[in-house]
Write a structure and sequence with these properties.
Elements (H helix, E strand, L loop, with lengths): L3 H8 L44 H27 L7 E5 L1 H12 L6 E5 L5 H7 L2 H9 L5 H14 L4 E2 L4 E2 L16 E4 L2 E4 L2 H12 L20 E3 L5 E3 L3 H11 L12 H19 L7 H6 L2 E7 L8 H13 L3 H4 L3 E6 L12 E2 L2 H11 L5 E7 L5 E7 L4 E4 L11 E4 L13 H5 L15 H4 L2 H15 L9
Parallel strand pairs: 1-2, 2-9, 9-10
Antiparallel strand pairs: 3-4, 5-6, 7-8, 11-12, 12-13, 14-15
Helix pairs in contact: 2-3, 4-9, 5-7, 5-9
């Protein structure tokens, strides 16, 4: 709420505003959903006090009302203080804040000029219930894997998907292309916490089910994505093990779905999770989900929305954003049309809202600002991180559905040695594709108000990347050669 991000925005010269949505902002209660029931100590607009009932006022605050009020009140304060209206307004949020950004995009896009919605909990009910899936799988099988055992399977999955591995960083660039099977490890032995462990059929089945996900409801985890947050367990002194579910989801199940009815979390198997899931969607989906693919209001408002999502995000799987984007394309005229106002970038090796061993986006808000204020839509986002030896790694995150490929020369730690391929382009209606453009393997996409540079004179983006990589390679030979 009122943390480092807000202070950083103010330091950078922004008038910035945040809100706790009318709830207790104590970080110790961040995962506690007891506020959703009347009589919990927090009351809504109608001062409802009947204990054990859903407080719909507070729920609507969380869903979108607080975000809208935050924008209107913040803008009013800025205008009164400075004597003029802000020239531009942006939304910047992740997770729940990302979901609220999507609510603004779908219902109130005229309130802002740009929306940066990172790792959004778009289908909120599916996200919060889906996070219980690994626990339900283990409860069903009565087989609980320790973090060490989970990491053993993950490490072998990454090795088994070597064709898509970024070897310098140790991450899978495209885990969705990997068809690895945990059954390959059945019978193998390894040491965990000083104990010799042998992989059983049940252990492999649990891992496979976690990655399969609940059919038709929510995506499972891709191979190589961490599992230790959602599949966490408690190991007792006597060596017995019990489930330790993700606290936000466990609290939501207890207070919202079951409304404080007595419940033993060890009884949450796949069948009962499915039953509670159906009830949760019926009760809360209409209020909390922001997965309406009709973005006509966003398109007509001229507001721009940019989303990036870490592929190693186990809390809100990146497929949540990707599937929504595909639904939008299906009803809004296809990828090229949607790219005019909504762009998606995926970050390999990056976890929820940032972090992980993959290169993290550097200044995505700056990219959004250039799109809004300079009509310069981003085809890539600058990202950087460190490899296993502590060396700087730079990348350009590709506009979906493009993916990064090493061009074959140059330092693999440098962004200039990689190229985005497989993107969605369309030529301008008034400017046909020329033979020169095909010669360079690039379809130019001039933007309105921009003059297209001659391909032969300036070279395509692909050509310049290859030359840049060659320059890095020559200078990296250590022979004192410089290329200007």
């Amino acid at each position: 709420m009122f943390g480092a991000h807000l202070g950083a925005a103010v330091k950078s010269g922004w008038a910035a505003v945040s809100t706790d949505g009318g709830h207790n902002a104590d970080l110790d209660r961040l995962t506690d959903a007891s506020w959703i029931l009347s009589g919990s100590g927090e009351t809504g607009l109608n001062n409802t006090s009947q204990s054990g009932m859903i407080n719909w006022d507070l729920l609507h605050n969380l869903a979108s009302r607080s975000a809208v009020d935050q924008i209107l009140v913040g803008r009013s304060i800025v205008e009164q203080y400075y004597g003029e209206r802000p020239h531009h307004t942006y939304w910047n949020g992740c997770s729940t804040g990302g979901r609220q950004g999507y609510a603004i995009a779908q219902k109130y896009p005229d309130l802002v000029d740009g929306i940066l919605a990172v790792a959004p909990a778009v289908s909120f009910v599916n996200v919060v219930m889906g996070a219980l899936w690994p626990q339900a799988v283990m409860n069903t099988a009565k087989t609980y894997l320790s973090n060490c055992e989970l990491e053993y399977f993950r490490a072998h999955a990454i090795q088994g998907c070597e064709a898509t591995m970024d070897t310098r960083i140790g991450i899978l660039r495209e885990p969705f292309t990997c068809a690895w099977s945990p059954n390959k490890l059945v019978g193998s032995a390894f040491e965990c916490d000083g104990i010799q462990v042998v992989v059983t059929d049940l252990m492999a089945q649990v891992i496979q089910r976690i990655h399969d996900g609940p059919a038709g409801k929510f995506p499972g985890l891709d191979w190589g994505v961490p599992m230790t947050t959602l599949a966490n367990i408690t190991t007792h002194h006597d060596g017995s093990r019990s489930p330790r579910p993700f606290r936000i989801s466990a609290s939501w199940l207890k207070h919202a779905v079951l409304q404080d009815q007595p419940y033993d979390i060890t009884e949450l198997d796949e069948e009962s999770l499915n039953r509670h899931w159906v009830a949760a969607l019926a009760d809360f989906g209409g209020v909390m989900n922001t997965d309406d693919p009709d973005l006509s209001k966003l398109r007509d408002s001229k507001t721009k929305m940019l989303t990036w999502h870490g592929i190693d995000d186990e809390i809100i799987p990146y497929q949540n954003s990707l599937n929504y984007r595909k639904k939008v394309e299906g009803v809004m005229g296809g990828a090229a049309e949607v790219d005019e106002y909504f762009r998606l970038f995926l970050a390999s090796g990056v976890t929820h809202c940032g972090g992980g061993i993959g290169p993290n986006p550097k200044e995505p808000l700056d990219a959004l600002i250039r799109w809004v204020e300079e009509n310069d839509p981003p085809d890539t986002l600058d990202a950087e991180g460190l490899d296993a030896e502590g060396h700087l790694v730079t990348r350009e995150l590709c506009l979906w559905p493009s993916t990064a490929r090493y061009i074959g020369i140059g330092d693999t730690n440098r962004a200039s040695s990689w190229s985005c391929i497989g993107g969605t382009y369309k030529p301008a209606a008034h400017e046909p594709i020329t033979e020169k453009e095909f010669d360079y393997g690039v379809m130019q996409h001039p933007q309105d108000g921009h003059v297209q540079r001659n391909v032969e004179e300036h070279g395509s983006g692909r050509t310049k990347q290859i030359l840049g990589g060659l320059k890095d390679h020559i200078e990296g030979l250590g022979m004192g050669l410089r290329v200007n």
